[in-house]
Amino acid sequence: MPRTAPARPRPTSRANRTRVIRAAAWGAVAVLALVSACASPRAAQESAESATAQVPVSAAFYPLAYLLEQVGGPGVRVWTITKPGVEPHDLELTPKDLVDLPKMSLVAYLKGFQPAVDEAVAQQAPSAAYDVSAAADLTLGAPAGEASATDLHFWLDPIRYAAVGTALGERLALADPTHAADYRARAKTFAASMEQLDKTFATGLASCATKQLVTSHAAFGYLAARYGLTQVPIAGLSPDQEPSAKQLADVAATVKAAGVKTIFSETLVDPKFAQTIAQETGATLALLDPVEGITDQSAAKDYPGVMLANLAALRTGLGCS
After folding, report:
1. Which H helix or E strand runs over 57?
2. Into how many domains does the chain fold?
3. Where does the record locate the signal sequence feature (predicted)?
């Protein structure tokens, strides 16, 4: 039986070849369009998230955290190393407290105020660490008779506090250049609010029966210096440093000689020595908050509120008109 030759494929015409090429091209365009349609929303979302992402920052204790919140605004997310209710001088850190430090774009701290924090930032976040000491203009030394030291409680002087806010605004601008103008604007607004607070204090303490400010520990030196008061601390710069019998006797003698009517204790410090002086001299015990942290016992929920409560306590305790 004869074999049948296989059929030859019909030659493709130029028109057919053109149609095939066009179909392939349109198919490629369709695929690209589909990929683009899927990718564009994701890219847009990522871009939007990048624009609204909060810069992670950390503060050693409350006054610096409040500053970062005010100057950073919605552009930052603030972690506070010292938890509410903990006396900052006594802070001890655990590994859990340090786990987020390396992730921070900025860590604001006050060198010498909390040795545990000094060590932690040096080890965990050296490139993000920012010591506010220089901006605070720390010019006051320790009370007489105390070992050489510098008073670090700058935030109780609204003008120094504003200066640190301005410095933090510049530091945030470096960390997040996209929102630099916003940080600088908020720092300026904060400085204006502190200037107003300063005027309120200056007016409120302009005329007082006594200028002797007797406090639990030497936290109010900058406040006293700013408004013409003389701080008479029972304990030194650290509230853990217990006064000697001679120091207690000297403070009691000052209270009697100056006719001081009020001894000021604090929220986070044991008031036993202030109570001792008050009982011995017949003075009244009142509360003056160093604003080192906000607790349920604080007179207000933030720095300005507590400072205004302090002013009211000072006016009553010092007999201001």
Report:
1. strand 55-59
2. 1
3. 1-43
